[in-house]
Amino acid sequence: MSDYLLVAILLALMAVGYQIGTSRIRSLVPAGAPIADRPHSRPPYHGLLVALWCAVPALAVIFAFWFFEPFIDRYFVASQLPPEVRALPDAQFADVMRRIQQIASGFGVVGDTQPYENVAATRLRTMETIWSLALIGLVAVAGIVGIFFARNRISPSLRARNEVERAISLLLILCSAVAVLTTVGIVASLLGEAIHFFSFVSPIDFFFGTVWNPAFSSTGSSASGDFGLLPLLAGTLMISIIAIAVALPIGLMTAIYMSEYASPMVRNVAKPIIEILAGIPTIVYGVFALTVAGPAFAAAGAMFGLDIRATSAFTAGAVMGVMIIPFISSLSDDIITQVPRAMRDGSLGLGATRSETIKRVVLPAALPGIVGAFLLAVSRAIGETMIVVLAAGNSPLLRLNPFEPSTSVTVSIVNQLTGDNDFSSPQSLVAFALGLTLFVMTLGLNVVALYIVRRYREQYE
User: Fold this and answer.
1) pLDDT tens string 326-352
2) What's the total number of domains in the chain?
3) Is residue 170 part of a domain?
């Protein structure tokens, strides 16, 4: 409850600061003042500047509190424990602290509690209450101080608009930095653990091996099985190619019909229905593939003399292709719709038919967006897990027949990271090597897509 109260207080103070800022500049420069006496910035910018000066110190107090509170609570609770408990090893002492926090919160407590645990938990609750009240008071004081500081700076010559725009630019830079640093962190974590894995297994055996059978010695310090990536990579590419072969023509033709041929009534009804496919959980697609699509494909194959397994790469790829149709159709539809009408009219005015206009004018103009939609669909197909788990058969063998069971890299990552395996063992570290492989594959797709788009734009322009 204190978190919601904290947010409410901060928002209320910012609203008050905005009103104070706008009122202050209006009182300094009355309406109808000569142009030379008018303020540099409009009143809303002065209000936003005061609101920002209210939020910045308050947020600094909140972040400082969140950073230091765990250390202070730990020190306070440890001082309430008996000496023999404080003398426990770090791992056992961490368990004791975690149990006291569970007793204080009232959740996750197992078994009978000790008297010293109850005492420490009671004092911890009291400490947390005091901290919450102190935080609310400090945030309010910091916000009020910021409001009065910014109010006193307001004058007709204050460049409030420039300061607000700089603050917004800084916020945008921070948001962009979060995305960049997240990517860097993911790559660093994958690369570090993958290098650790390659200290047990040769990269040549991993990238060029044809057998996947990760069996390990009892000590977990060395690998005693086979770690060939090619069976997993072949299964991933096979399933993805089948999915794209299903989704690309259907999705692109759907987008062309919706944008060029469908009436507004049909478009308004059909497009939301198609986009519903993107919101269906993948586990539902997996169950559908396992119970409906797989047996149907097997029965259809028997009619034509083909041996199609109910759980196979073809089943997983076909159902996955249906799932990613909206990614291609919806994005391509939006891009095709944005092509200027003048280009269509010019082509039709020169005597081209509607189909020729679509093929020679509209689609080339929309190619960058269509390539982006295609790339998004491929990335989704490569990273899909649940449909492959249920419909592909989970058979890590190097096969080129799409009608037989197969598996993918993502499924193997799940298999290696589930259970009670030691995360420092090669059996778990191989998942990071597989994840790094998927990352490189996705990066390669992006590079190819950028190359295609840039080359096309040079020719088209």
Assistant:
1) 989 988 988 888 888 888 889 888 888
2) 2
3) no
CA 232 to CA 408: how far, in whole Å? 5
Alpha-carbon gap, residue 189 to 176, rounded angstroms:
20
Residue 356 falls inside a structural domain: yes
Q: Do 256 and 404 belong to one domain?
A: yes
- 136 and 49 assigned to the same domain: yes
The pLDDT confidence band at residue 217, using thresholds 50, 70 and 90, is: very low
Other C-beta atoms lying within 10 Å of the C-beta of residue 359: 13
210 in any annotated domain? no
Rounded to 5 degrees, what are φ and ψ at 293?
-65, -45
How far apart CA 434 and CA 229 sit, in angstroms, is 8
Separation CA 43–CA 449 (nearest Å): 47
Residue 21 CA to residue 49 CA, distance in Å, equals 8
Q: Choose one of 158, 190, 211: the last residue of a domain.
A: 158
Q: The pTM is what?
A: 0.71
Cβ burial of 157 (10 Å; 0-12, 13-18, 19+) is exposed
| Domain identity same for 139 and 258 | no
Answer yes or no: do 141 and 34 share one domain.
yes
pLDDT of residue 246: 93
Which residue range is the domain that position 136 belongs to? 2-158
Report the alpha-carbon distance of residue 407 to residue 231 in Å, rounded. Answer: 8
At residue 22, the 3 state secondary structure works out as helix
Structure tokens at 166: 């700089």
Are residues 287 and 411 part of one domain?
yes
> For 32, which DSSP code?
T
The Cα 190–Cα 434 span in angstroms is 9
Phi, psi of 43 (to 5 degrees): -55, -40
223 DSSP β-pair partners? 216
Tokens read off for 133: 């009240």
Nearest to 147 by CA among 12, 8, 43, 13: 13
The first and second tokens of residue 110, run together, are: 């197992």
Q: What is the mean pLDDT of the chain?
A: 84
**Final residue before a domain boundary, out of 98, 124, 158:** 158
Question: Would residue 164 count as lying in a domain?
Answer: no
